[in-house]
User: Fold this.
Amino acid sequence: MIAVNYTRQSEREGSQLCEESMALDQTADSAEMLSIYKPEAWSPSSPVAIGDSDTDSVDSLFDESPHRQLHVFTRVAGRAAPPIPGLFVPDIRISAELANEVTQKCMEMYFDGRHGINQVMLFGRSTSEVEGDATLGAGLPPFLVSLLHKLRDLLQPALPQQIHALLFPGKSAPSRARQAILNLYNPGEGISPHVDLLKRFDDGILGISFGSGCVMSFEKVRSEGKSGSGSEHGDSARWDLYLPERSILVLSGEARYQWTHGIEGTLKDVVKSETKDGDHDTIRRGTRLSITYRWLLPGADIVGEPDQPPSE
Ligand SMILES: O=C(O)CCC(=O)C(=O)O
Ligand SMILES: [Fe+2]
Assistant:
């Protein structure tokens, strides 16, 4: 087995959203103190804005000052997968027992805190029947192979058949190289928006969240030659989706190739309320571990270079 350890390049830099999230963390303990912009259910998230406004949807942070009214808007993430073709987040969770087992193994084997590592890449192969015991990831540590097999069974009724077959090829399918990437995020850490490397990874990406939820943001890759802020003019779109712990994410087709995914480095996520329409929950980030399985393209030079940043 080959393992490659990295310190992940993380944190989204320079964007307006990031600055506002900082403001969220620094200025308020609860979302009630903030002005929350609430987009319609499943309309793409609207841009963040700071400035004077007297609309009903915002409250002032500084009501007592008539001269300086600062309004902070933030996005409210949805809880159901947005309509991006090829994106699947089925409404199922792996069991708490399995999640604990896997997390414990990862912490013991890779993230014991000795080297400041927060990213590990592991490599294996799916094998076919002719080679004897067929597995979905021979060469990966047994607990990651076993997780793959459990995911195959769990996802069987939850995904379209061809997407399931893309992730879990049958026993007679040719052997393929597969990577498992483990990412550990302390509260406040994230990963820059990116498209997984086009020259290294094939279609069909499977990710599982452990230990904490987080909001994952998806942004449409801009077509070449277009510029400008875009979102109000139809050439860009963004969705924010809350991924609860033990949930499973699948990226394929358009979602894998035409949209970036990223996680903002924030201590709290603002998410649509599960119980009350039009309301929101503020959810504190815990330490999150993610495991992502990806197919390597034939001949991809896989060892020695970081996976981020990404789009090409
Ligand atoms: O942590 C996650 O769920 C996403 C990780 C990711 O996008 C990556 O490693 O390419
Ligand atoms: Fe990624």
